[in-house]
Write a structure and sequence with these properties.
Residues 1-26, 44-63 are annotated as: Disordered. Residues 363-390 form a coiled coil. The chain has 2 domains: 21-39 and 76-416, Ribonucleotide Reductase, subunit A; 40-75, no CATH class. Strands 1-2 form a two-stranded antiparallel sheet. A two-stranded antiparallel ribbon has the order 3-4. A two-stranded antiparallel sheet has the order 5-6. The chain has 15 helices and 6 strands. It is mainly alpha-helical. The protein binds fe (ii) ion (2 copies). One fe (ii) ion (FE2) is lined by residues 150, 188, 191, 244, 274.
Length: 418
């Protein structure tokens, strides 16, 4: 069985990225800070409120300031940094785009599924169902939550195309950044596709409730707090891809352990893709650190302080709250945590890994603002580690509440009361 005893309070599932909730800060304050840090040598644009009022960043007319819509700072990259991004075309073509695999040799979802054109298709489905019968409901809740997150891919492609200097201006732009975004999306598209079909064939999942959740999630979008800024955006995606690798890797191990080796192979194949994507995004940020160490340090410090939010944090199945008086995403995160699929410790481990990889603690030659970011982010890691350890201890004494999940036909799954 999956380890329910190792429960952390506020970690999040595979494609989710919330650190301990006690650490969260007001979004607007964080957004102002990065704006001040990065918008230093560009003309100060106007801000547009949702009601159409034009204001500056301080809310006063006529004084300039960052562009803000509904509390979200926009376009925080400065002109020099934008030039650096444009200078990376050759690097991207040579170092990053080749990390994607050739479509001709790439695995496809059908490689892992019963062959619907085969005379023994129904026997293959029966075999699949025999295997999936052994999987407990808490496993399904995590797998389905991960699948729903993958299925909201239109939102993630849109997010990449919000980033200044890298967006695909036409939808078919023949630029390295445009090719990367489209082909990355095309690789990712296989993940939700495969997981969705496997869940459907198992008969263990209420697909209508799942489909409703996917439609709601795509309709809601996400706010990764990346400010159209590719520095922030690629730090976010570096973290996110590693988080998904960890989560899918764990659902693979758990499926194998629980008797469904085929599902283990599926989740492992997806985790393998996430590992390549992580490598690619990290390489982009490697280059940013080479070209602009101070600017990238400030961006890294800012993203870590604001925290990496989960792309699926707005998920809604239209009934979880009514049935349980609790938030669906929080409960999904809690089950992912309880099953050891993605935990608060994982969040802190990823942060630590990236800090080691980018030599955050040892980087020299930074300007004073970047040095402050360097000190702050190291202190933040220590604080996150301490809080996560403490919350882990506290959670062991918290009550477990039977909670209905529509995704598994309203069967009750234990959720730690946070
Ligand atoms: Fe994925
Ligand atoms: Fe991914």
């Amino acid at each position: 069985m999956l380890g329910r005893s190792t429960v952390l309070p506020c970690s999040s599932p595979s494609t989710s990225f919330a650190a301990p909730s006690t650490l969260r800060q007001p979004r607007r304050a964080a957004a102002k800070s990065i704006s001040a840090a990065l918008v230093t040598d560009t003309p100060r644009p106007k801000a547009i409120e949702s009601n159409g009022t034009t204001r500056n960043g301080n809310g006063k007319l006529g004084q300039g300031g960052p562009t803000i819509i509904n509390g979200q700072v926009l376009h925080s990259i400065n002109a020099h940094q934008l030039d650096l991004i444009h200078s990376m075309d050759g690097y991207l073509d040579k170092t990053v785009v080749p990390i994607l695999k050739d479509v001709k040799t790439m695995w496809q979802p059908t490689d892992f599924l019963p062959d619907s054109s085969s005379p023994d298709f129904l026997d293959q489905v029966a075999e699949l169902r025999k295997r999936t019968d052994q999987l407990p409901d808490d496993y399904w809740v995590v797998l389905v939550g991960d699948m729903i997150t993958e299925e909201a891919l239109p939102t993630y492609m849109a997010m990449l195309n919000t980033l200044d200097g890298v967006r695909d201006e036409t939808g078919a732009a023949d630029t390295p950044w445009g090719r990367w975004t489209r082909q990355w999306t095309a690789e990712e598209n296989r993940h939700g596709d495969l997981m969705n079909k496997y869940c459907y064939l198992s008969g263990r999942v209420n697909m209508r409730a799942v489909e409703r959740t996917i439609q709601n999630l795509i309709g809601s979008g996400m706010d990764p707090k990346t400010e159209n800024n590719p520095y922030l955006g690629f730090i976010y995606t570096s973290f996110q891809e590693r988080a998904t690798k960890v989560s899918h890797g764990n659902t693979a191990a758990h499926a194998t352990e629980l008797g469904d080796k085929q599902l283990g192979k599926i989740c492992a194949a997806i985790a393998g893709d996430e590992a390549r994507h992580e490598k690619a995004y990290i390489k982009i940020v490697d280059r940013l650190f080479e070209l602009d160490p101070s600017g990238t340090m400030i961006a890294f410090g800012d993203m870590m302080r604001k925290q990496i939010v989960m792309p699926a944090h707005l998920m809604n199945d239209n009934e979880h709250m009514q049935n349980n008086s609790r938030n669906l995403f929080k409960d999904f995160s809690s089950v992912a945590q309880a099953t050891g699929t993605y935990t608060g410790q994982d969040y802190v481990n990823i942060m630590e890994f990236l800090m080691k990889h980018w030599n955050i603690g040892g980087m020299l030659g930074l300007n004073s603002e970047a040095q402050k970011a360097q000190d702050d982010v190291q202190a933040l890691l220590t604080k996150f580690r301490r809080l996560t350890d403490r919350q882990e201890r506290i959670m062991k004494s918290k009550a477990v509440v039977p909670t209905k999940f529509s995704w598994v036909f309203n069967k009750e799954v234990p959720v730690i009361q946070v």
